[in-house]
Amino acid sequence: MISVILTDELGDEASPKLVIQTTEQSPTIIRCLVTGGFPPPTITVAFDRRDVTARFRFRSRANVTGSRGLRLIEYRSERWTSDWRPSKADNGRRVQCLASVSGLASVSTDARLNVLCELQATLLVTTILLILLLSIIFSGIYLTYPESPSQTELYSTSGLT
């Protein structure tokens, strides 16, 4: 049996994504992780059905478990890039990951790209900061400054009264 996930995380505990969100021209991770299959599967990556597999690195490793005589070998293969820099034109595109093993049905998954332009990213940060500020003001928690000393206090501490 073959399982396929598409994610924007590196590491063993990657979770599948239906939407990969990034900012235009920022280095972005796209990773297709395939578990199972023998021989190790062929992995194809496409953006809107355009094959971009050559832009992705490949790695495959075998994990052996079980006692002697009852060993189980499970292959874990992946294609990934960590330096893809999306443009505004990539927004809304579908990334597809397809795993194929000769003699078995192919398995695939896909995710939609959500590419924020620089203005959107700046607007998002500004909106979040504004919401935080308003929540502080309306919750009654705000910074106060000590009152300035009165003229009388100034004269009395300086000895000029």
Short synopsis of the structure:
This protein has 161 residues and is an alpha+beta fold. Helix content is 18%, strand content 40%.
Question: What structural keywords apply?
Answer:
Immunoglobulin-like; five-stranded mixed sheet
Question: What can you see in these coordinates?
Answer:
With 161 residues, this protein is of the alpha+beta class. It has one domain: Immunoglobulins (Immunoglobulin-like), CATH 2.60.40.10. The protein has two helices and nine strands; from the N terminus they run βββββββββαα.
Put simply, the count of helices is 2
Name of the CATH homologous superfamily: Immunoglobulins
CATH topology: Immunoglobulin-like
Gyration radius, rounded: 28 Å
Major β-sheet annotation: 5 strands, mixed
The 3D shape can be described as: elongated
Number of domains: 1
The strand order across the widest sheet is 2-9-8-4-5
How much of the sequence lies in strands comes to 35-45%
Structural class: alpha+beta
Helix content: 10-25%
Question: What are the SSEs and their pairings?
Answer:
Elements: E1 3-7, E2 19-23, E3 28-35, E4 42-47, E5 50-51, E6 57-65, E7 72-84, E8 94-100, E9 107-116, H1 118-138, H2 151-158
Parallel strand pairs: 2-9
Antiparallel strand pairs: 1-3, 3-7, 4-5, 4-8, 6-7, 8-9
